[in-house]
Specification:
Layout: H1 6-28, H2 34-53, H3 58-76, H4 81-108, E1 113-117, E2 120-124, H5 127-144, E3 157-163, E4 166-174, E5 188-193, H6 194-201, H7 203-209, H8 217-226, E6 231-238, E7 241-248, E8 252-255, E9 258-259, E10 263-268, E11 280-282
Parallel strand pairs: 4-11, 5-10
Antiparallel strand pairs: 1-2, 3-4, 3-8, 5-11, 6-7, 7-10, 8-9
Helix pairs in contact: 1-2, 1-4, 1-5, 2-3, 3-4, 4-5, 6-7
Length: about 280
């Protein structure tokens, strides 16, 4: 009968979960601070310990997606439904690749052992072997999933726009989850943060936008309209539920240097900050 040490079990799964979240952030452009990443890995490792000692059966299969969702939610925060599910699928797929590689490395070394319960892997290996297996798995997965291996890299889009007599240039991240459309004109929505909109529209507008929240959309909209800005309201659905999005019709707008009259701007209550440093989200 194999002896399982809880601290080793926790450490193995913490390291592997942290690598999984880091890979997901890199491959899918999901921003996450180092502290949130560590908290997500710790949450996954804690549930892994619980799953390992839980009776095998349907309970383990039901708790696996809960564990994955908790890790993603903790590491990356609130997200749109499609992006959240996509990150969960990426974590799940990478976990099979990474755990398989580390497990195989442990089996190849003399004196090493392993155990699996409810799909949670316990490796009876030294810290050096765990580190080496993790680095090899990280390197191979990053190389295999590099831009251009399965699909072309999604480029960042350079946006220039003029609104309220002022101009701004910024980078937009191509987000397939951005499906916002103006129901009247059918135009696509480029989503930008309130801080960027304030820089574009000037000091008075920035002061009004500083108080933008889900409960203050009407007040901010009235303030912007009072400044003579061409703003509107767009019903939308986000991770927090249904609400209203303030839109802005630019006087002129180009995407990668080409005129793009099919877009309007949407001002988000939350900061738009992908991992690549872009300050806006544009659909495809």
């Amino acid at each position: 009968m194999r002896i399982v040490y809880v601290d080793v079990l926790f450490l193995v799964n913490f390291v592997m979960d942290h690598v999984l979240l880091a890979l997901t952030a890199e491959l899918r452009g999901s921003g996450a601070a180092g502290r949130r990443m560590a908290l997500g890995a710790a949450a996954g490792a804690f549930l892994a310990v619980f799953l390992f000692f839980a009776p095998e059966g349907i309970l383990g299969w039901l708790l696996r997606p809960v564990c994955c969702g908790l890790m993603v939610r903790t590491a990356f925060g609130r997200q749109a439904r499609r992006r959240f599910l996509g990150d969960c699928a990426m974590v799940y797929a990478l976990s099979m690749l990474l755990s398989g590689g580390v497990l195989r490395l442990g089996q190849m070394l003399p004196g090493a052992g392993s155990a699996v319960s409810n799909t949670v892997v316990y490796l009876d290996v030294s810290v050096g072997v765990l580190a080496l297996g993790t680095l090899l798995g990280y390197g191979l997965i990053t190389w295999a999933c590099r831009p251009g291996s399965f699909r072309a890299a999604v480029p960042h889009r350079k946006i220039w726009c003029r609104a309220g007599g002022r101009e701004a240039v910024f980078q937009a991240f191509t987000d397939t989850g951005n499906l916002l459309r103006d129901p009247v004109s059918g135009k696509k929505v480029i989503l930008l943060s309130a801080s960027l909109a304030g820089e574009l529209l000037g000091t008075e507008a920035a002061r009004a936008l500083a108080g933008l929240s889900g409960n203050a959309v009407d007040e901010v909209f009235a303030a912007l309209a009072g400044l003579g800005l061409p703003v509107g309201l767009l019903p939308c659905t986000a991770s927090l539920g249904r609400g209203l999005l303030i839109t802005l019709r630019p006087e002129a707008l180009t995407v990668d240097g080409q005129p793009a009259g099919e877009y309007i701007l949407g001002i988000s209550c939350d900061e738009v900050a992908p991992a690549c440093g872009c300050r806006a989200l544009i659909g495809v």
